[in-house]
Structures are given as structure tokens and as C-alpha cells.
Amino acid sequence: MSIAIAFSLISGSCDCYVAIINVNERTVYSSHFNIPKININDVFDFIKTNDIPISLKSLKAFLLEHAFKKSQPQIIFSIDIKVIPPDDIILSVMGLLNKLSLAPMLVRTYPENIAVILDFPISAKTKKKLGKQRPPLYIYRNVSDAYGYFLFNKKNIARNNAIYSAYIATNATLYYFLTGSGAILSASDIKIYLNLKENKKKLNIPEDIQIDISGVFSGLEYYKLFDTENTLYDKINDIPLEYALASKEYDFIKDAGRENDNLKFAVLSICKKWQLCLHSSSIKDGLLSKKIFETNEPIYQKNKRFNDTILLIKKIEEQDGTLKEDILLDLLNDLSNSGQDVSQITLELYMCAAYLAPPIVYDPRVNEAHWIENYIS
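Now predict its structure.
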């Protein structure tokens, strides 16, 4: 996804910071809007009519000017909480996006609309009805701020948060890494990986013999390290201390209620200092499904169980006539709900995905986000 629109919203506030990013053209358009609160019932009413509230017309003009030049953008909301009051301004923004066909309005309400749930699993039936429209993504504001701090060492500014969030939305691998709930690599995992080279020498194991001990399989995520030509193999014993200091530095992320998010930035910090690549795969990433299905690599022939799984999925898809991007997650959920153990199949999917196209979260040799520094405050 090369184009994304981010809305950075502070809970309880009327401030709406918007950023539209195009990574192919390396352009960013950003602005700030003050949007009065509107009750969710009134939002549903204006969706059904041809009218748009006056309070949203300036935002509409901004989106029409910058967001309709190319293909369908990915929408992302940078938020503080995922259960909101029924008059939160995000609902007004969602209503506008729905009318402009930029994103569907997908919410759940508590009885009598006392509160609204934003982020929840979407059924296959609902996804089919959406067609080409993409459901919006969600990320906690603190996580976007942390990523900006990691990139440019700049503290939290609301306008910048929208730009960081929009950039994250253009990179599915990065998005699923930052929002995933899996347990990340520990300091010990990184130490073991860096010590491997020396230990192989001590055991007289030839250099060309591959021993893979850098991967961590956790929930729906798989994390893996790779060295580079600049990887440092000295001061390895300093890693636990550096890891702890970095996790402490990013402690402010915990305010969002996710206890392990600061550890992701500890790992990124270690990768930057010791010049390591970090790869991450997520079954939630729909593009991963396509990579697996569309390849002709002979790796499938080496694993009968995995090959049988792929054939089963393809058979299911042929009945529908389409290849849904999220078929892997849907299939695993169905198998799990029927009482089957899907851990081995899931692991095999990750292994093949990593072999086919290792998705990169961080590479110290490349800073693909450097150009957005020109647009941040």
C-alpha cells in the first residue's frame, strides 16, 4: 500500500490531525481540524442523506483535494482507547469517510448506544460485502509516537503523530509488528544469536552449515533476526543492560495498556546498535496469504502436510471463485474453533513465508523513512 490517510485523535478532544502520505511520490499533506462532537445517531442520519454537516466541510475539501488523485488509500486511526463515548469525533470522521467511499463505517455499540467499540474481528460475510473497500486500521497514539522517536529522536507532537501513523499504514509488515500481541525476542535470544558464530567455531561446525536459532514464534506473529556485513560481535554481554535501558526509555507506551510494546522498541534499539536485521511475519497480514499461494517454489513439495493444507485452502477458495487476502487467518480460526491444534500448521506457514519473502521490519543499512523528516516539526 503506497497511499495512506491517518487521523490522529485525542480522546475527549475536538482536535483532529490528518496526514495523507504517498510513499511512491514521497509527498505528505497534513492539516489540523476542529470538529465538534456529534452523537452517533446523528452520524448515522447524515450518512443516509446527501447533506454533510458544516463542521466537516473543510475536512471534506482537504480530502477531496489530496486523496482522490490515485488509488484507494488505506485509512488508519491513531487513538488512545478502542471503546469510546457515543459522541466522540472519530464517529463524525468515520461517517464522512463512509460518504466519500474512502472507508466503511464499522462499529459496534453497547445497548442504548452508551459506548462504541472501534476495533473488533470482522466476519468473512461482512468482508465480502465490503468488496474493494478496506476496513480502517487502528494504532495506539503512544506506539506511533514511539516509532517516530525511534526514527528521529523527536518527542511527541500531535501533528507528527498523524504523519508517523500514515507512514506505518503504508507498510503492512511494520504495522502488524507494532500492533501485534506476540511476545517479542528477549535480550537472551539476541545474545544467543550473536554468540552462535563463535560457538560454531568452538564446535568445529563448518560456516556453511545453517543453524537457525534466531526465530521466535508467538501467537499470530513470528520474529527472526539476520546479521548484516556490519553486524557487531563484540560487547555482547552488554546487551541485557542496553535492552533494559531501552525498554525503560520507551516505558511511556505502557500508558496505552499494552505491557510489552516497549520491549519491541528495545529490540529495535539493539538491532540499530548491533547492526542486525529484524524480520516479522503475521498471519493477520493478508498479503502473506498471496505470497504463499502464488509462488511455485519447490519448498511445498518437501512438506506433505503443508502441501495438503495449501491444496485444501485452494479447494475451498475455488468454490467461491476468489482468493481472499485473509483466507489463512479465517482458515486457522475455523480449524481452531473446531477443536483442532493449528500450532504446527501455523508454524509451517510462517516458515514458508519467511523462506519466500522475508518481511523486513528493520534493516540498519536502509532508512526508507528518512524522507518524511522533511515534513515533521
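Residues 298-302, 316-324 have pLDDT under 50 and may be disordered.
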